[in-house]
Write a structure and sequence with these properties.
single chain; about 160 residues; 3-stranded antiparallel β-sheet; 3 helices; about 25% helix; elongated
Length: about 160
Amino acid sequence: MMRPEIFKMLLVIALFRGWEIRQWDVVATYLQALLHHDVYVSDINEDEEIEYWKLNKALYRLKQAGHEWFKTLESILNQAGLTQYIEDERTYRSSNGNQIIGTHIDDLLVIGASNKILDQTETSMQKSVELDKKGLPKQILGMEIKWGKETIVLT
């Protein structure tokens, strides 16, 4: 989970360097995560018989869902050429340092040196997951962001 101070640092880095800033939201997050071990659920059908199903993907409220999602997200970001920061396990960067992505469950704050770089990552990620592209972040981690010509205000 991205800590609020990391989010603020990413905004400062982007503004200081004149980088592009975007927010993406992964659609149906936990349903994107494959389970790496057997999980079964049961229910009673209309004939009062117990039915069992083996899950292939995580579901919301499943105890393993968050862990499995982050393993899936890490794999997707690695395929896009990003690696995990040692200092913060939910923040990823490109090998040449021209792009950083902070993650908070299904919310991604993406900063990069150019729109072309961000477009390439977006295209790579969309091979695996559907992204809701929100543009400049307006609200994330419970903070509202107001963009001015030369300032931003976090509330």
